[in-house]
Amino acid sequence: LKTIENAVKHKNLSEKVETLTELTKRSPEPMQTGGVVTAGDSPLQKTLEMAQMVAQSDFSCLFITGESGTGKELFARTIHDMGQRADKPFVEVNCSALPATLIESELFGHVKGAFTDAKDNKIGLFEMANGGTLFLDEIGDMDFGLQAKLLKVIEDQRLRRVGGTKDIKVDVAIIAATNQDVRKNVADKTFREDLYYRLNVIPLFLPPLRERMEDIPALAEHFVGFFARKFGKSITSFSK
């Protein structure tokens, strides 16, 4: 039984090696734009080319969708770094990591005395990102009540701090991202339809790695080089 088990493992490993070897032969040289690594004939390459075009324009809203782990934050940073706002702040917020009671204050700021713990005036992330880019990660998890306020700020490019009376002008490009099916959320009335269409001016979909296996050799080469440099090793490639 042990011999058979080893033979099966060896066969499976051999098949994987053959597949990756064939992909390596077919794939052009790895390409890297910003932090994004891809093969020249990968489906991701078209998305990257679209991102480069978007970055050169002074876009207002960009919506990135894709499964967890497909690199939505990496793409957002790359687009910012390639764009006209590269010398301005890139500010990110994970909408699922903050409770609904705090996220409004985080985004828009607050004035002293606005609530119990508001002991000083606080600048929100919109103001911190002024002139640059605000990355709203996992926006599908944002509180429904806050979505209307977000929509108004995006449309007016003005905000009012929590507890404040003064409107503050901001100039911010918005990149939103989610791993959810937002159209389904709109149908289920958990995500505002008007906010969805306002954010979805330029949609970018990031396919999972299983749909772009051409990228596996390119990523392998990238990571072996990265970790060799990090740990001072002379490794340049993988054994079979």
Please give a structural write-up:
Helix 2 packs across helix 3. It is built from 9 helices and 9 strands. The mean pLDDT is 86. The strands form 3 sheets. Strands 4-5-8-3-9 form a 5-stranded parallel sheet. A two-stranded antiparallel sheet has the order 1-2. The longest helix is centred in the first third of the chain and has 25 residues. It is α/β, with parallel strands linked by helices and 240 residues long.
Short précis:
With about 240 residues, the chain is α/β, with parallel strands linked by helices.
The spatial strand order of the largest sheet comes to: 4-5-8-3-9
By DSSP, the count of extended strands is 9
Globally, the shape reads elongated
Strand content: 15-25%
**Biggest beta sheet summary:** 5 strands, parallel
Gyration radius over CA: 22 Å
Elements, N to C (H/E): HEEHEHEHHEHEEEHHEH
**Unreliable segments of 5+ consecutive residues:** none
Helix tally equals 9
- Helix/strand-derived category reads alpha/beta
Assembly level: single chain
Q: What is the overall pLDDT average?
A: 86
Distance between the termini: 26 Å
Q: What is the helix fraction of residues, given as a range?
A: 40-55%
